[in-house]
Specification:
Layout: E1 19-21, E2 31-35, H1 37-42, H2 47-51, H3 53-59, E3 71-73, E4 77-79, E5 82-84, E6 92-99, E7 105-111, E8 126-127, H4 128-144, E9 150-162, E10 166-176, H5 182-190, H6 194-208, H7 218-240, E11 242-243, E12 265-266, H8 290-309, H9 313-342, H10 352-365, H11 370-380, H12 390-397, H13 403-418, H14 424-434, H15 442-455, H16 459-468
Antiparallel strand pairs: 1-3, 2-9, 4-5, 6-7, 7-10, 8-10, 9-10, 11-12
Helix pairs in contact: 4-15, 4-16, 5-6, 5-8, 6-7, 6-8, 7-8, 7-9, 8-9, 10-13, 11-12, 11-14, 15-16
This protein binds adenosine monophosphate and magnesium ion.
Function: Nucleotidyltransferase involved in the post-translational modification of proteins. It can catalyze the addition of adenosine monophosphate (AMP) or uridine monophosphate (UMP) to a protein, resulting in modifications known as AMPylation and UMPylation.
Organism: Methylorubrum thiocyanatum
Family: Belongs to the SELO family.
Length: about 500
């Protein structure tokens, strides 16, 4: 019989000091909450077998799958600006890698499957709430078209985990292009382990930037690749109102995927100073700070890579700076290109960033809901032909405390749209394809978690997953899931997903 997972483990072939070999801890009474059958098929796995006792034992950590080489990876990281030389997978265990039907290699990792040598004071466990949040939000991000880790399965363990209260335990099976982080490089740099650093960089190049191997300076090309992916990723986050919440360097993936969904949340009312995480007291990771923080993190990556960039220190710094200088332009291009599409503009003119910026400013001043404003704008987009429906315009206006402030802006927008080529229908279709109707609204996510944790009711989880798998479709049957919470969601708090 073929293996459940056709593992081919490249990370496990790296030197011993990259990780600790550790097996998952068997749990008492696992129950499958959900298997992501579509993802299983994409990965070339057999969903029926994964749902059978054989697969299920693996997904709960009761049994080590054939071909797996379970390990906890070592990494370091800056947490809220403070460097911690030793972090590592404290509650995650990499089982191995599979190459999917698309030819892409992906990590299969259990999260919440017991202690590792990197657990420090933690228990190595995950609670059901954060597991469901990560499953739902990461799958929603995927459906929104934003690079992200994926969720293959969630199981409950039948064992309690002790947090502020006693909670049901769970294990998430996370799928990622890799789990290499900025902090992985910092781990070796902090130890002056240049050979480790080189081995990691070569591994990262092979996995994520194979063309960099041919470049004049492969390590600079790697840094440029990571910079580009991160600039585009953060622009995409801003475009859907996503706040990561804990952009520590150990939570920033070299692959350019959104990773670590602990305290993440989406904006309701637009305010760039929004920070939901209870531990982010100074708003370091606030919505509007995310581009700056991404560059800060990339600068830490560049510092870690210095010994590889050149033997000559001055030259190494110049190479690093040259790569990092690209960030601003890449981010601006991605961000303003996206904002233009969100406004139905397919060309780029000098005044466009100001036009978009003024809308955002007016939204912030008027407590306008981010998602609803852009989605309703899609219906209110005028074309060269008949004026937009008054109801469609009113639907946007009503989102602003002072609707006339929207009118003033909308007049400028209409004049700008007059200069655009293309049909009204085409424009509306473009806008609808970048302005989602459905995002994981915080009040919905909380209600879903409460139902699962308090009442073992997983129906809200399944329903939300269904709605969020088609975020750009209208889905009239689920219209209530598009609605904003009372009061614009102010005062909402999230907690690190421990
Ligand atoms: P995070 O803020 O979730 O990225 O986690 C930061 C560090 O704490 C990582 O090294 C995690 O592996 C570790 N960690 C978080 N929660 C736990 C836990 N319950 N048990 C052990 N380690 C944990
Ligand atoms: Mg983390």
């Amino acid at each position: 019989m073929t293996a459940l997972f056709p593992f081919d483990n490249s990370f496990a072939r790296l030197p011993d000091r990259f990780f600790a070999r550790v097996v998952p801890t068997a749990v008492e009474a696992p129950r499958l909450v959900r298997l992501n059958r579509t993802l299983a098929l994409d990965l070339g796995l057999d969903p029926d077998r994964l749902e059978s006792p054989e697969g299920f034992d693996v997904l709960s950590g009761r049994r080590v799958a054939e071909g797996a080489e379970p390990l906890a990876a070592a990494y370091a990281g800056h947490q809220f600006g403070q460097f911690v030389p030793q972090l590592g997978d404290g509650r995650a265990i990499l089982l191995g890698e599979v190459v999917g039907r698309d030819g892409r290699r992906r990590d299969i990792q259990l999260k919440g499957s017991g202690p590792t040598p990197f657990s420090r004071r933690g228990d190595g466990r995950a609670a059901l709430g954060p597991v469901l949040r990560e499953y739902l939000v990461s799958e929603a991000m995927h459906a929104l078209g934003i690079p992200t880790t994926r969720a293959l399965a969630a199981v409950t363990t039948g064992e309690p985990v002790i947090r502020e209260t006693v909670l049901p335990g769970a294990v998430l099976t996370r799928v990622a292009s890799s789990h290499i982080r900025v902090g992985s490089f910092q781990f070796f740099a902090a130890r002056g382990d240049v050979e480790g650093l080189r081995a990691l960089a070569d591994h990262a190049i092979a996995r994520h930037d194979p063309e960099a191997a041919e470049a004049e300076n492969p390590y600079r090309a790697l840094l440029e690749g990571v910079t580009r992916r991160q600039a585009e990723l953060v622009a995409r986050w801003l475009g859907v109102g996503f706040i990561h919440g804990v952009m520590n360097t150990d939570n920033m993936s070299i692959a350019g995927e959104t990773i670590d969904y602990g305290p993440c949340a989406f904006l309701d009312a637009y305010d760039p100073a929004t920070a939901f995480s209870s531990i982010d007291r100074h708003g370091r990771y606030a919505y509007g700070n995310q581009p700056r923080i991404a560059l800060w993190n990339l600068t830490r990556l560049a510092e870690a890579l210095l010994p590889l960039l050149s033997e000559d220190e001055t030259k190494a710094v110049a190479e690093a700076e040259a790569a990092l200088t690209g960030f601003a332009g890449l981010f601006e291009a991605a961000y303003h290109g996206l904002l233009n599409r969100k406004l139905g503009l397919t060309t780029m003119r000098d005044g466009d960033p100001a036009l978009a910026g003024d809308l955002l400013k007016t939204m912030a001043e008027n407590g306008a809901d981010f998602t609803l404003t852009f989605r309703r704008l899609s219906a209110a987009a005028p074309g060269a032909g008949p004026a937009p429906e008054p109801e469609a315009v009113e639907a946007v206006r009503s989102l602003f405390i002072d609707p006339t402030s929207f009118d003033a802006w909308a007049e400028r927008w209409r004049r700008r749209l007059d200069e655009e080529p293309g049909s009204v229908a085409g424009r509306q279709a473009l806008m609808r394809s970048v302005n989602p109707a459905f995002i994981p609204r915080n009040h919905r996510v909380e209600a879903m978690i409460e139902a699962a944790v308090e009442r073992q009711d997983f129906v809200p989880f399944e329903t939300l997953l269904t709605v969020l798998s088609h975020p750009y479709d209208d889905q009239p049957d689920f219209a209530q899931f598009a609605e904003a919470p009372e009061g614009g969601g102010r005062g909402y708090r999230t907690f690190c997903g421990t």
